[in-house]
Amino acid sequence: MKEKVKLFVKEKVKLFVxALAILVVxxxxxxxxxxxxxxxxxxxxxxxxxxxxAVPRYDYFDPPIAVYSSPANLDDLCITFELIGIDEGASxxxxxxxxxxxxxxxxxxRSIKHPPKTGVFLLSSENGLNNYSENFPLASLEDATPVSCxxxxxxxxxxxxxxxxxxxxxxxxxxxPRAYPNDWYELDDAATVSVGNIKIPSTLLLATRDxxxxxxxxxxxxxxGKDNAGxxxxxxxxARSWSYYWYIYLVASLPFVLLAAVFSFKYFxxxxxxxxxxxxxxxxxxxxxxxxxxxxxxxxxxLPTPTRLxxxxxxxxxxxxxxxxxxxxxxxxxxHNDEPEEGTTTPRADRTGAATVNADEIKKLDDLRAxxxxxxxxxxxxxxxxxxx
Length: 389
Prior knowledge:
Distance between the termini: 32 Å
Number of strands: 13
Order of helices and strands: HEEEEHEEHHEEEEEEEHHHHH
Mean pLDDT: 78
Number of helices: 9
Largest sheet: 8 strands, antiparallel
Radius of gyration: 39 Å
Low-confidence stretches: 336-353
């Protein structure tokens, strides 16, 4: 008895090791790619003194926030940045730029001796990713209605109406589109306006018109000392809301959850037979087919592939295929032979069928004995053989 138990345990351990090896081989590459995806997208810079921008409603900008406020006595220009949209695949954003002069700024511009005819707006980054410049006629600022950059009632309509200089920029940002739906994008550039060799003190404002992303900006606070992005620095991050990416993961998991639920209900209840290999293969194939249209709906076509969601789909498919192989080839190896062993009783259905056949044969033999074809001894001998005696 102990030998049989040892043999049984040894066989089960062997089957477990084989099943585990198949699962490890199937998941090794997807897990490695997922790990690489997570490490590559973990470099988002922490924003000092970050403030979230309000999400716009009804196609209007919400009030902008001042990401850098020039000292009150040097508050000459208002440079307002409007986040209009984002191209995730190219890691590029579209910014609307409005430049307006305050009353102090207009007075300062008029006081410059021998001023050039044009001013220069410059947006540049330390790593050389961006270096955008835009020339504008200086007279347009001098003749414009003064704007206000400070206070809690700054409105985009006030800035738009009184800012003569307006243009759009397509700006490259540091982005991780392959981390979708956990992708993020970050801009960290310096924005200045110069007249000749003179940099005009400016306040930087930021607003967003994109309702699909959450935007957090670093706000300069002199009291924080070194814990700031720096003067004239426009630094903000763009990411999807937590409700968005959890919804994406939930919908993406539905085919796998549904397949697991069906098999659990159908085969793992009381007195239910296990699934046959072709049934497992059919369920896996149906799930794989369902993933293709689901992926096209959940993942924007503009994103480069494979995204993080693609890798999760791949890992899920690898688990399904490995499970089917384990069920069909490994677990079935551990099943006992369905034929009854010596000394075991025949199932009731088989005994009933055999009894019916024997009864018919014995009746025929009895007819032959009554007709005188078989003797009583021959009839008894044959009858004994039919009854298994």
